[in-house]
Design a protein that fits this description.
mainly alpha; 1 helix; rod-shaped
């Protein structure tokens, strides 16, 4: 009786292990995709930050030049 029980357990455990292995593999692939998407998002955020910073720098330079011109006119 115990030999039969062991045989039945072993026969049914193989598909269960295969199902679990497949599930964990799919989970790993999904995690990989999520991390890849997060990395792409961070790259876009960084690029956006750099563009905004450059735009603000240019606007500041323009404002400083305008202020300088205004100050020169006031002196004259």
């Amino acid at each position: 009786m115990t030999t039969g029980t062991i045989a039945v357990i072993m026969v049914f455990s193989i598909p269960i292990i295969a199902i679990l292995a497949d599930h964990f593999q799919k989970q790993s692939k999904l995690k990989h995709k999520v991390v890849k998407d997060q990395l792409e998002l961070e790259k876009l955020k960084h690029e956006n930050f750099m563009l905004e910073t450059e735009k603000m720098r240019q606007e500041l330079e323009i404002q400083l030049k305008l202020d300088e011109i205004k100050n020169k006119k006031e002196i004259l």
